[in-house]
Amino acid sequence: xxxxxxxxxxxxxxxxxPDTPLPWINYLGCQGYFGIISNTAGGYSFYRDARLRxxxxxxYNNVPYDLGGRYxxxxxxxxxxxWSPSWQPTxxxxxxxxxxxxxxxxxxxxxxxxIEARTNYFVPLDEDLEIWRLTAxxxxxxxASLSVFSSIEFCLWDANDDAANFQRNFxxxxxxxxxxxxxxKTEYRERRNHFAYFxxxxxxxxxxxxxxxxxxxxxxxxxxxxxxxxxxSNSVAHGWAPIGAHHVKLDLGPGETQEVIFLLxxxxxxxxxxxxxxxxxxxxxxxxxxIIANYLDSANVEAALERLRQYWDGLLAICQxxxxxxxxxxxxNVWNAYQCMATFNMSRSASFYESGIGRGLGFRDSNQDLLGxxxxxxARARERILDLAATQLPSGGAYHxxxxxxxxxxxxxxxxxxxxxxxxxxxxxxxxKETGDWxxxxxxxxxxxxPGSEQPLYEHLQRSFQYTxxxxxxxxxxxxxxxxxNDCLNLNCFSDxxxxxxxxxxNKDGKVAESVFIAALFVLAGRELAExxxxxxxxxxxxxxxxxxxxxxxxxxxxxxxxxxxxxAYDDFGRKVGSKECAEGxxxxxxxxxxxxAGIGLDDGRAQTAMDSVAKHLATEHxxxxxxxxxxxxxxxxxEISSYPPGYKENAGIFCHNNPWVMIAETRVGNGDxxxxxxxxxxxxxxxxxxxxxxxxPYVYSQMIAGRDAPTHGEAKNSWLTGTAAWNYYAxxxxxxxxxxxxxxxxxxxVIPKSWRxxxxxxxxxxxxxxxxxTREGEGNxxxxxxxxxxxxxxxxxxxxxxxxxxxxxxxxx
Length: 814
Ligand code: BGC
Ligand code: NOJ
What we know:
Elements: E1 4-7, E2 12-15, E3 25-28, E4 33-38, E5 45-47, E6 54-56, E7 71-76, E8 82-83, E9 95-101, E10 105-112, E11 115-122, E12 129-138, E13 144-157, H1 159-162, H2 166-169, E14 175-178, E15 181-184, E16 194-200, E17 206-210, H3 211-215, H4 225-229, E18 242-252, E19 257-268, H5 289-295, H6 298-316, E20 319-322, H7 326-346, E21 361-362, H8 363-373, H9 378-389, E22 401-402, H10 420-435, E23 444-445, E24 455-456, H11 457-469, E25 514-515, H12 516-535, H13 539-559, E26 569-570, E27 576-577, E28 587-588, H14 589-597, H15 606-618, E29 619-620, E30 623-624, E31 627-628, E32 654-655, H16 659-668, H17 672-682, H18 691-694, E33 702-705, E34 716-719, H19 724-736, E35 739-741, E36 746-748, E37 758-765, E38 768-776, E39 783-787, E40 790-792, E41 796-797, E42 806-813
Parallel strand pairs: 38-42
Antiparallel strand pairs: 1-2, 2-9, 3-4, 4-5, 6-13, 7-8, 7-13, 9-10, 10-11, 11-12, 12-19, 13-18, 14-15, 15-16, 16-19, 17-18, 20-37, 21-22, 23-24, 25-26, 26-27, 28-31, 29-30, 32-33, 33-34, 35-36, 36-41, 37-38, 39-40, 39-42
Helix pairs in contact: 7-8, 7-19, 8-9, 8-10, 8-19, 9-10, 10-11, 10-12, 11-12, 12-13, 12-14, 14-15, 14-16, 16-17, 16-19, 17-19
This protein binds beta-D-glucopyranose and 1-deoxynojirimycin.
C-alpha cells in the first residue's frame, strides 16, 4: 500500500494521506538554520546545533511523536468551527490533503468546507530564518470571513536543559512584542546575544506569548481555548512557557485568494550592541528589522524560493542518469543525493530517531558521508576534512565524535575505536579524486586542536595508517579497541551493569581481540595512501605501504578465512567470531563486503565464494542481513550486538549501510545482476508499494530494516541520518553505473545487469561536463570507450585540454 507518489518532474514526494504509518519528514535549511518538518507540520527548528541553539520546542517521546510544530489554525467566523489545514493538531476530515516534500521546502495543505489553504515552509539560502507562506482561497459561492492563527512554542535554547530543568526554566522565559513581531529573549539579559523572532505580514488583531493563555488550562494543541474563542489575549510571557501566536483576519470573496507570510528566525547581535538604548534591557532590533521587512514582502519570498530551486538544480545537475530503472533514476537524480546533503548537514544529530541532544559529528560517519556529497559541495567537504583531521590525536587515533559548535573532540565519548583513523584516508582519497586539489595535503592541521601541533594533512594520513601497525594482535590482525565499524561488537567491554553505555564505559585495554574488518579497511586505505604517496613523489613510502598491505592480505588469507567466507573477528579469549565453529553469529556481512571491496580474494576465488555465501546465508527479499544466526541470548564477551532482540539493529537486522559494500563487491567479481538486485531490494522508492510494511519514508534510506528473525521482518527504522545514504549513492553511481572519479581522471567501468541495453548519464567533473552513453552489445562488462568519437585505451577519460568544457563519451559493453 502507498500513501502518496513521486512527482518526478517537480522533484517532490507527494503524500496524499496524512496518517502515514510514521511521521514522514523533510529538512528545511542547508547552511546554518535548520528545521525538521513532518507531513502534518510537526517538528522543530534550530540554529547550527540542535542541542545548544534550539529555536522551537520538541517534546521527546510524545504521542504521536511529531506533535508540536508549526501550526496554523483556520476559523470560520460564522460557524465558529476551526481546523488545521495540515491535519494535525485538530485532525479534521480534510479534503484534498497533500504534503509535498520538495528540495528544502515542504508544502502542506487541504480543503475544508470550501476553504482551500496551503502553506509553503522553507528556509531561504543564506538566512537564519524560516518562512511559512500561507495562501487561502475561498471556493464557496459566498464570501467567507476567516481568522488565521499561527502558533509555535519556543525552546529555552539548550534543548537538553529545556526538557529537564523546570525549577529554573519556569521562571526565566522572557519576550518582547513590537510592531506585531514577537521576540523571544530568554537569557538575553545575561549571557546570550541571540534571540528568536516570529513575525507576520498582516496586521495582527492580537497575539499570545504565554502558552497557557493560548491553549487554556488542561488543553492541548488540538483544541486551544483562544482559537475556540476566536480571540487572543495579548498575553506577555513571564516565565512558564513562551510561545508565539498571531491572529489575522481574512475576508475572502468567492474565488478570492489571499496570502499571509509568517516569519520565524534566529538572530545574533554584536556583544556591545545588545541593547537599544544601550543602557536599557530592551533588545536592539535595528539589525534584524531590515531582514524581517524584507521577508514579509511577497515578491522577496518568491525570489528566495526561486534561488532555493536554483541552488538544488545546480547541485543535482552534477550527476544525472537515465537508466531503464525508474527507482534507480529517481534515487540517484534526486532523493539519494538530497539525503546525502542531509547527512552532511546533520551528521547523526537531529531526526525523529536522533534526538539532537546526543551525538555530535562522528569521525567515522562524517568521513564516509563525504563519499556521497563531495561532488556537490567540494569546498565544504574540504573544510569538513580539515575539521575532522584537527580532532585526530597524536597517536593517529581519533576522537570518535566532535561537537559542531566548538569543533572540539568529545571527551565524553573518547577514542579507541580502532577503525576510525582509516576513514580519514578514505575520505581524503575521495576528495582528491573528485577535485584534483592536492593542496589540501599540505594544509597544516593540529592534533587534538592543540595550537603548535600543526602538521600537513598528509602526515595525519600517515599516522592513521601507522596507528594500526602499532596495534596488531596475536594473529597479526588489527586489535579492535572499543569497536570497529560495528559499534556493537564490543569485544573488550564485558559489561554486566544495566544502563552502562557499551560505547563509552571503561574498556579493558585488550591485547587479544582482533578485527578482520579493520584488516580489510587497512588494505583499502593503505592502497589509497600508497597511491597518494606515489603521486607526491614519495616512492619509498608508497612501497612501504604496499608491503604492509600485502602482509595484511596474507594475514587475512591465513587467519581471516573460514573456508566459505571471511571471519569477522577474534574475541578476547582468542576465539573466532563469525565462523562455522560458532553456535550463533556464524557469518557476518561486513567482512564479506569489505574484504572483497578492498580487493582481497579476487585472485584466488575466495571473493566469489564469499559472495555466494552471502547470497545463501544472508540475502533476503528485504535486503542483506548483518549476521546469521542471530544471537538469541546476551554474550558478555560480545557486547551490545547481543543485547538487541534477534532481527534488530546489529543483531541480524538488515543494516542498510553495509548492503552497498556487498553491491560493490559483486561488481568487483563482475556480477552486475546481483549487484543491482541487492541495490533494488533496499531502494526506498522500489519499496514504496509496501509502505505499510516498510513504514518509513519511501524517498530516503533508513538505517535498518528488520531482519528475518524479527516478528516485523521488512519494517524500516531510523530513517534519514545514516551512512546508508552515502554508500548506496557511491555503490550505484561509481560501481554499478561505474562512473568513478579516479586520481587521473574520470573512470567509466559499468557493471550493470545483463538485461539493461545501456543507460545515459551526465556528470560534471573538475569543471568539465561528460555526456556519457553506455550501450550493451554483449552480456559482459568489457568496456570500450570512445571519447568525442575517438577510440581510447583503458577506462579512464583523461582531463581534456584547457578550455574544453564538454566531452562526449560513448561506452560499449561486451
Ligand atoms: C547502535 C549503533 C550506533 C551506536 C552509537 C548503538 O546503540 O546500535 O548503531 O552506532 O549506538 O552510539
Ligand atoms: C551507526 C553509527 O553511526 C555508525 O558509526 C556505525 O558504524 C553503525 N551504527 C554500525 O554500528
